[in-house]
């Protein structure tokens, strides 16, 4: 039997959504404001479509006004920018999310930076990144995935991580880097690892808090985990499994769950861990935008 606590992201996300629902009712009654979220998806990647539908469903269950713009894979850059300009100027829209990755012919940087910072509920605009890294976190939109991870870490260890070593595997703009900024702001001692890091297992074994955001199924083994660590598995990997001669897809994280759960104090599962918390944080950011 694994000894680690299984951190239930799905249950925590549902609690957050419930509290957002109440706040939305108050905002509507007292100020006549309905939070609006616009999601833009370009192309027909099936995994992206699953997330985008989850986002829309949760937004509606929170009482938000939710619009989904599904564009063809060959949509031109100027057409995407025109749509964003329209959403930037639409008073019913408080949050804009452009699902990543975008098709190759589109400039991801240009597209994400074209969203006005006060509607950038993904926290990808340079202004929000600047506020986060410079310590003006209350006035920033914090990227949803690391924000969700941070809430789960706080539940385990409290808000002050002084004296604790945090190791993040992955240095993307969407997860690894903002995760490092949040852990640093909470006084953890932070190490960021990536594909050029030497002796990764040894580095990982120093972690009191281990965050895996790599995109490689079950790369992090049980013997990489320090006994008593808190392990946050951000990875979402769709792998093929054959059962009774039939091909099926299964979701797995970047951590070998069973192995790690025998060593860690607490660990997030995949699915049901970081994923639902990401969506909850998107709702929280959209509510924050609508309220301010
Ligand atoms: N649950 C959720 O809400 C979310 C889940 N995800 C999932 O998290 C995972 C990571 O996503 P994202 O950050 O966008 O991914 P990226 O592909 O942008 O980044 C992956 C990072 O992992 C590093 N890496 C790759 N291979 C190795 C290796 N063998 N050893 C050490 N480091 C390695 C890369 O290093 P280098 O920089 O050197 O290339 C890179 O920094 C994916 O599975 C994704 O699906 C992502 C966003 C949200
Ligand atoms: N602009 C932008 N912002 C993002 O936040 C963003 C993005 N682009 N591109 C892709 C990644 C990935 N991501 C996930 C969100 C929810 C789940 C999620 O709900 N996962 C469920 C399972 C869902 C399933 O069955 O596939 C779970 O882990 O339990 C997963 C992944 C957000 N991302």
From TrEMBL:
GO function terms (MF aspect): methenyltetrahydrofolate cyclohydrolase activity; methylenetetrahydrofolate dehydrogenase (NADP+) activity
Pfam families xref list: THF_DHG_CYH, THF_DHG_CYH_C
Positions contributing to NADP(+) binding: 170-172, 236
Domain Tetrahydrofolate dehydrogenase/cyclohydrolase catalytic span(s) in chain numbering: 7-122
Domain Tetrahydrofolate dehydrogenase/cyclohydrolase NAD(P)-binding positions: 143-291
Family: Belongs to the tetrahydrofolate dehydrogenase/cyclohydrolase family.
HAMAP family: THF_DHG_CYH
Function: Catalyzes the oxidation of 5,10-methylenetetrahydrofolate to 5,10-methenyltetrahydrofolate and then the hydrolysis of 5,10-methenyltetrahydrofolate to 10-formyltetrahydrofolate.
Name the UniProt record assigns to this protein: Bifunctional protein FolD
């Amino acid at each position: 039997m694994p000894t680690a606590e299984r951190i239930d992201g799905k249950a925590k996300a549902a609690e957050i959504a419930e509290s957002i629902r109440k706040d939305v009712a108050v905002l509507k009654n007292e100020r006549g404001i309905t939070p609006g979220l616009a999601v833009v998806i370009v192309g027909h990647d099936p995994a992206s479509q699953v997330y985008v539908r989850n986002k829309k469903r949760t937004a509606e269950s929170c009482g938000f006004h939710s619009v989904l713009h599904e564009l063809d894979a060959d949509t031109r850059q100027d057409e995407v920018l025109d749509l964003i300009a329209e959403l930037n100027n639409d008073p019913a829209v408080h949050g804009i999310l452009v699902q990543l990755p975008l098709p190759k012919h589109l400039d991801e940087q240009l597209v994400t930076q074209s969203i006005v910072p006060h509607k950038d509920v993904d926290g990808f605009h340079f202004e929000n990144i600047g506020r986060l890294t410079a310590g003006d976190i209350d006035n920033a939109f914090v990227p949803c995935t690391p924000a969700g991870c941070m809430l789960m870490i706080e539940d385990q260890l409290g808000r002050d991580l002084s004296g604790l070593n945090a190791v993040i595997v992955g240095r993307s703009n969407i997860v690894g880097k903002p995760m490092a900024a949040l852990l640093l702001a909470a006084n953890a001692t932070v190490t960021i690892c990536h594909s050029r890091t030497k002796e990764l297992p040894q580095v990982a074994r120093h972690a009191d808090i281990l965050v895996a955001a790599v995109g490689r199924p079950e790369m992090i083994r049980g013997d990489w985990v320090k006994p008593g660590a808190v392990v946050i598995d951000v990875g979402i990997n769709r792998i093929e499994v054959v059962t009774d001669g039939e091909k099926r897809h299964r979701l797995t994280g970047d951590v070998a769950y069973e192995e790690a759960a025998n060593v860690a104090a607490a660990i997030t599962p995949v699915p049901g861990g970081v994923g639902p918390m990401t969506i909850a944080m998107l709702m929280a950011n959209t509510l924050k935008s609508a309220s301010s």
